[in-house]
Amino acid sequence: MDRSFLGIGGRRAGGRTSGRSASEVEDVEDDDRRHVPIIHERSDHIEVRVWLRLLHCTRAVEQNLRNRLSKEFNTSLARFDVMAQLERFPDGLRMSELSKYLMVSNGTSTGLVAGLVEEGMVEREFDENDRRTVTIRLTDAGKKQFLKMAKRHEEWVISKLGELSREAKRDLLENLVLLDRHVSHA
5-42 burial by CB neighbour count: b if 16+ within 10 A, else e? Predict the structure, then answer.
């Protein structure tokens, strides 16, 4: 049985996934014991199959990271990403810069930052000349917490890729760099 791609989108009543026949979708349990529809790769185009595989792998690793961050640190992957960006810029970032780096709307960034401010992980500094301009940075407590999370995050990612040989990982990285260059300039 080909279990080559996890389907995208919500499930309908009766176990059907929109746009797919019952013969194309079957339920399996993922690592978190949730039912996930499987869509068989039927395309003759290797490019489509590669894209689907990349998407599946990304989503599977992200879901694993989300679950682990929630369980171990009571935080979300989105909050971790905010803290990771702020850690890269010790002098802080303006909200618009943070949104750009996270590739989310200003409203989304504002909501994430508000929660982190409330928890004491992040601080806001208002510009004396323009109160609309705010610089966001990690607090000392935020830096300490981020370093703990980053260490565990690294361990989790390494464990997910651990079965690949060093050579396979190197080849994969080289090919992904080439793909990134191609799609980033398209």
Answer: bbbeeeeeeeeebeeeeeeebbeeeeeeeeebbbbeee
In the numeric block, the tokens 């989790």 are attached to 156
Cα 184 from chain centre: 18
Domains of the chain by residue range: 75-186
Please give the structure tokens belonging to residue 88.
């890269």
Summarize the chain as % helix, strand, coil (round to 5): 60, 15, 30
Tokens describing residue 73: 């640190």
How many other β-carbons are positioned within 10 Å of the β-carbon of residue 101?
17
State the Cα angle at 66 between 121 and 104, rounded to 5°: 65
Fold for the domain defined by 75-186: Arc Repressor Mutant, subunit A (1.10.10)
End-to-end CA distance of the chain: 36
Q: Is the pTM of this model over 0.85?
A: no
pLDDT digit string (tens) for the chain, length 186 residues: 333 333 333 333 333 333 433 333 333 334 444 444 455 556 678 989 999 999 999 999 999 999 999 999 999 999 999 999 999 999 999 999 999 999 999 999 999 999 999 999 999 998 888 877 899 999 999 999 999 999 999 999 999 988 899 999 999 999 999 999 999 886
